[in-house]
Each structure stands twice: as structure tokens, then as C-alpha cells.
UniProtKB/TrEMBL annotation:
Name this protein carries in UniProt: Pyridoxal-phosphate dependent enzyme
Species of provenance: Sphaerisporangium album
Gene Ontology molecular function terms on file: L-serine ammonia-lyase activity; pyridoxal phosphate binding; threonine deaminase activity
Alphabetized UniProt keyword annotations: Lyase, Pyridoxal phosphate
Pfam families hit by this protein: PALP (PF00291)
Length: 363
């Protein structure tokens, strides 16, 4: 049986094709459950870490997961998430959402995205044979739009902010009754992204990293990574979760501002233009959850500037790693923190993701 959604108002809801928020209007969550460990070796892809018995994942899977963990200098490891089937870590969550949609009998999907989640949902929807409509903000990389259209999804370009794009997608969902394949609102997405942590734990031979340095826009990787290690902790496999350092672009940093102010909720900001388009989220819907997750680990928020991102992008390319600009923000933060002698990265292992391929967007 699929795990019911929970809302902080106290209500719970069985998953249905039309359910994406609580009747009170609140966000839906999934209860934390212990991770079964060790994961069965005979199951292919990231589904070896998940209980996929109630969803037709084999009909949807593209072999996602198992991305390389590249050792840089003995203390720093880079997780090459752009080796995923559609070129970003969003495949981890998208395959779970689309498999869920199939299990619930959905006949059409709607998603909104700054690019990578849209390409992932479009690809897995094509694999599942379910029509998809992807809403994107104006200014989204043309390469990402071509990829979405290439998978057969309909693209709707919205003039306005990332938040305007989400509002337009929600309006379409309410108008049509489509399954809202939202990486922000549907917590099953985090069931996919939690496998990022489980893979790292396994690839490091059962060692818990000291620090995970992660990009933070809508927080899907922060929340998933925290959930994975918290699940191992709940199972008694580990006794601590790694510190999470969440990274935002200086020009759009509502979470970092809230953290600095000691606030429990971020306030919406007016975003400036940033080359890190994938994390340019002015008003993250799960902001309080992201802040709570980082606090649980004894972590912190940091911001990086445009020049730092560009320099990190070039440095990665010089090491044979070709990422989109957003994919360089975690590495930019590591470089800065190391230069400052920050205790946040003083001890290893430190792990940072290379989230999206440079074939999707470039400087």
C-alpha cells in the first residue's frame, strides 16, 4: 500500500491522481521511515533502495541512479549527477513521480520547472506513455526546451517569475484534473532524491561524510539528501547525519537571508539575474522544511557570487567535468570555504554534486 500523505494540520490523505495538497491548503509530507539496509544488490537502478512494490517502476525506469563518485583530493568527492539519463539529478525524483502517476491511473501530467525537472518529467512521461504539459519561465535555456519537446511534451512558456510559472501550472491542474507532477509539492519526489545519500553511503564503504555541500533553490536535493541519511539513522545503521551546507546564488538567496536572521520561514525576495537559473527561486514553498533540515544537521547556508560560479565552472571544465552554471555552485562554495579556512569543510569526506550537464545550458 502506498504511504499516505501527512499535513502539519493533522490530516492525512491517501494518494490519488488529483491530490497534491491538503484540504487546508497546506503542504503534504511523508512520514520518515527507517531505510532497509543493506539494499538488495539484485535490483537494478535506484529502485534497489526503495519499496517499489506498489508502482510499475520497471515500465518507467531508464536505469537512473548509480552515478559516479569522483575523488578529487582525498577529502573532496564530486557526485556526477549529470550522468543521469536526462542529464540531471532530477531524474531521481521524476521517475518516482511518474511511476506513482501510473499506479494511480493518471492520464495526463502537468509540471512546472526552470528546466531540469521539466526535462526529467517529460522523458519519464514519454517512457510511461502518458501525455505531459510542462510550464517553464521565459528565459529557460533553449537546449532544455528542445529536450522537453523532443520527448513529446507540450511546452508552455510563462512570462514572469518562477513563481508565476508555478501558479500557471496549478491553474491548469485545477482546470483539467491532471496529475500535478510537481517536484516541489509532491513529497514522493524526495523519496527519489533520498537515494543520492544512500548511494554516497554505499560508495564510501559505509562511511558517513562529514559534510554535504548542496545547491538550494526549491530544496529538492537538500530535503532528499537529509531524508536519506535520517532514514539510515532511524534504522540504527548510523548515529549521525552529515552536516549540510546549502548554497544559494547571492542574487537570489531567500533561504540564506532567513538563516542569517534566525527566521523559521523565508521571506520572498526580488530575484536578480543569475547564471544559476536552476536555483533562482525567490519564494521557496518548502522553505521552512529546508531550514529545519539544515538545522538538524548542524549545517549552514552560504551564498556565492556570479564570478565565483563562473570560475568554478571553468575549474571543473579544466578537470574534465562539464556542467551547466547551476551545477557549479556547490563546487564554488567548497572553493570559497576552503580558501577562508572554514570549519564547515575542514574535515572530510566532503561531497558535492555536479547536478546538471553543460550540454543543457552554458555560460
Amino acid at each position: 500500500m502506498l504511504t499516505p500523505y501527512e499535513c502539519r494540520c493533522g490530516r492525512s490523505h491517501l494518494p490519488t491522481a488529483g491530490r497534491w495538497r491538503c484540504d487546508c491548503g497546506g503542504l503534504l509530507d511523508l512520514p520518515l521511515t527507517p531505510v532497509r539496509w543493506p539494499a538488495p544488490a539484485e535490483v537494478p537502478s535506484l529502485w534497489r533502495y526503495l519499496d517499489g512494490g506498489d508502482v510499475p517502476w520497471r515500465e518507467v525506469s531508464l536505469g537512473e541512479g548509480g552515478t559516479p563518485l569522483v575523488e578529487e583530493d582525498g577529502a573532496l568527492y564530486l557526485k556526477v549527477e549529470y550522468a543521469s539519463p536526462t542529464g540531471s539529478f532530477k531524474d531521481r525524483g521524476a521517475v518516482v513521480l511518474v511511476a506513482l502517476a501510473r499506479a494511480l491511473g493518471a492520464t495526463r501530467l502537468v509540471a512546472d520547472s526552470s528546466g531540469n525537472a521539466g526535462t526529467a518529467v517529460a522523458a519519464y512521461a514519454a517512457r510511461a506513455g502518458v501525455p505531459a504539459e510542462i510550464f517553464v519561465p521565459a528565459g529557460t535555456s533553449e537546449k532544455k526546451l528542445r529536450q522537453i519537446r523532443g520527448h513529446g511534451a507540450e511546452v508552455v512558456v510563462v512570462e514572469g517569475s518562477r513563481e508565476d510559472t508555478a501558479a500557471a501550472a496549478i491553474a491548469r491542474v485545477e482546470e483539467t484534473g491532471a496529475f500535478y507532477a510537481s517536484h516541489v509539492y509532491n513529497p514522493y519526489f524526495h523519496e527519489g532524491t533520498k537515494t543520492y545519500s544512500l548511494e554516497i553511503f554505499e560508495q564510501l564503504g559505509g562511511v558517513v561524510p562529514e559534510t554535504l555541500v548542496l545547491p538550494a533553490g526549491n530544496g529538492t536535493l537538500v530535503l532528499g539528501a537529509h531524508r536519506g541519511f535520517a532514514g539510515l539513522r532511524a534504522a540504527g545503521v548510523i548515529d549521525r547525519v552529515p552536516r549540510i551546507v546549502a548554497v544559494q546564488a547571492e542574487r537570489c538567496a531567500p533561504l540564506a537571508a532567513a538563516w542569517a536572521a534566525g527566521a523559521k520561514e523565508p521571506e520572498a525576495v526580488r530575484p536578480g539575474g543569475t547564471i544559476a537559473e536552476g536555483i533562482a527561486i525567490a519564494d521557496p514553498a518548502r522553505g521552512s522544511r529546508i531550514l529545519e533540515a539544515v538545522a538538524d544537521t548542524g549545517g549552514a547556508f552560504v551564498t556565492v557570487g556570479e564570478e565565483e560560479i563562473a570560475e568554478a565552472h571553468a575549474a571543473l571544465a579544466a578537470r574534465g567535468l562539464w556542467v551547466e552554471p547551476t551545477g557549479a555552485v556547490s563546487y564554488a562554495a567548497v572553493r570559497r570555504l576552503r580558501a577562508e579556512g572554514s570549519p564547515l569543510v575542514a574535515e572530510g569526506p566532503v561531497v558535492a554534486p555536479l547536478c546538471g550537464s553543460g550540454l543543457k545550458a552554458s555560460l
